[in-house]
Amino acid sequence: MYIAVAGNIGAGKSTLVKLLSKAYALQPVYEAVDENPYLEDFYQDMPSYAFKSQIFFLAKRLEQHLGQVNNGDRLIQDRTIYEDAAIFAQNLFDEGLMDERDFASYKRMYEAIRLALRPPDLLIYVQASVETLKARIALRGRDYEQAIAETYLKRLNVLYERFIAGYDSSDVLIVSADQTDFIHNPADLPRLKNRLEQFGLVPPIL
């Protein structure tokens, strides 16, 4: 089974991937945030680094799929290639931070790559208000994220809701980050596991 976890910056995707990978013996595939050589510069100067940063994520996502996801058995992935295009690249274009030529080139490459990738069996969408996102971004303490504008997070949330409303590549399970805290509230994870089992996710037989 291949599960993908979607959600805005700071929603808690990586934490959820870590917990579920352990609970269900799933191979975790994490987003290569710290490997992106453009990301810190991107948050300081989005127009100059938007295309470069998005191309890095696209290439890394392809590398992960070909190396781990496409032929894997039990996997859980932190963020999808669909979000890269439908939310992050789309927002950069909408806001004039990526020009039409770069966006067209990005979309053409994305569409070609997407055809070669395995779609998830289940998409978990971690839905979070801007207030929750800001609080969790502050807690994890990445210096380059501290300057992310509230308006940027709001725009991404709007695009996430649009993306989820139109997503049809797999079943979708929506988890509210505003109402759950898998680290500090021990009862939240068992409740989520009960919901996941309705989609066929069970621990392996050892």
Task: Give structural notes.
- The protein is an alpha/beta fold and 206 residues long.
- The chain has one domain: P-loop containing nucleotide triphosphate hydrolases (Rossmann fold), CATH 3.40.50.300.
- 53% of the residues lie in helices and 12% in strands.
- The protein has a 5-stranded parallel sheet, with helices on both faces.
- Helix 3 packs parallel to helix 5.
- The longest helix has 24 residues.
- It is globular and about 50 Å long.
- The relative contact order is 0.20.
- The mean pLDDT is 91.
Number of strands: 5
Strand content: 5-15%
Broad shape: globular
Low-confidence stretches: none
> In the CATH hierarchy, what is the architecture at level 2?
3-Layer(aba) Sandwich
**Number of helical stretches of at least 4 residues:** 8
Largest beta sheet: strand ordering: 2-3-1-4-5
Overall residue-averaged pLDDT value: 91
**Main sheet: strands, sense, barrel:** 5 strands, parallel
Instruction: Indicate the percent of residues in helices.
Output: 40-55%
CATH superfamily: P-loop containing nucleotide triphosphate hydrolases
Query: Any idea how many domains?
Result: 1
Short description:
The protein has helices at 13-24, 39-44, 46-69, 81-94, 100-114, 130-140, 150-166, 188-197; strands at 2-7, 27-29, 75-78, 122-127, 171-176. The protein is of the alpha/beta class and 206 residues long.
Topology:
Blueprint lengths: L1 E6 L5 H12 L2 E3 L9 H6 L1 H24 L5 E4 L2 H14 L5 H15 L7 E6 L2 H11 L9 H17 L4 E6 L11 H10 L9
Parallel strand pairs: 1-3, 1-4, 2-3, 4-5
